[in-house]
Amino acid sequence: MRSTLLTATLILAAAAAGAQELTVAEAVGSALDNNPEVAAARARAAAAASRLEGGRSHRMPRISVSESYVLSDTPAEVFALTLNQERFDFQGFFSSDPNSPEALSTWMTRVGLELPIYTGGVLSARIGQAASMATAEEHLHAHARQKVAFDTVAAYIDLAKAREHVALLEKARSTTAEHLRIAEQYAAQGMILEAEVLRARVFLAELDEYLSQAASGARLAQAALNFHMGAEQATPRSLAALPPQPELVGDAASWIAAALEERSDLAAAHLKLEAGRLEETASRPGYVPKVAVVGHYDLYDDSIFGSNGRSGSVMAVASIDLWGGGAGTADRAAARHETAAFEADLRRFEEGVRLEVEQAWQELATARTRHATAMAALDAAREGLRVRESRFSQGLDRMIDLLDAETALREAETRELVARFDVVLGSHRLKFVAGKPVIETMEENS
Length: 446
Description:
four-stranded antiparallel beta sheet, alpha+beta, 68% helix, 12 helices
């Protein structure tokens, strides 16, 4: 029995171990800095931004350098490569057998350039897709921050509730232990039966079991908070009091409208739909020409990187695909169908957001009502226990009546505790599902 008390006491002592109390804003700040979910979303946003830069770079000229080596005794190649090396000699050519030349060793250094002029809209579409996806990932990064912030706040609230529950049960156990002491005195004086004392001892043992369960729940709640903060799960935490929550104004319709306007993940979905629509342009059949400028400058010699012979050329190239077996048409049709599917998914997503906000609104309203009722019931239970204690001390009530009053008070305190924290958590949940900052400091750090 005492070991259970020790366990609960250790939980509370661990909570007070830290020299400085952790505020909910500090917990969220730690989560935003250390939670891997935020880091992953940040990395994906950076990757999308890099892909956008890569896409834009395709508008710039491509410059390449290559080095080639040729050893040939093919008459035409020997003749051409000798000219390219600028070592052609008329007398030597006519005095030798041009059909059986000696093998010629040639090194060629080439600097090439390619510049797209017109791609039929494909390049613009791809860049537009990359831009939409980059912005979408920025929105998803913002949503990941909001989600992690809400998860951290929820874990903070759960830990505060769990510790208050432990304290509540400690108080209830202390009250029952005192009543048991009085009952034992009464039994020794013959004022009550020993069975009454045994009943109180059983009741106290049940409280020890509840206290043990509550202590275990507090340990898990602390580990969960550390998990969301990106910290070692066994780190003890001393929590500051939760700040008062401002009254949330507006009706369900206004919160739904705000969610459709401000939800970052919904904005990301719209941008991804825009990227999908551009896929039709990017994959359309090649019935329009593609134009590019291609140039190269060559250095020829019989030694590597030599430059005895020099030449260059510039070309304008235009091409058009007249028929590709229907592959382009199929790709465009597939893109159109995928866009239609994403539009349907987006409509369902929007309806889901409406439902999510409506549910959060109703749950918050219900929690407020439950808390008001629980407060009234708690006042009545406290008064009931006071009356029973007075009557028991006068020998007018049995121990069972006193224990029933204790049970009623404990249950009323638990209902009030749960309802009160449900109101706090429900307020944060409503803000989260509506796309608003879960706590005010997020606006400063976003």
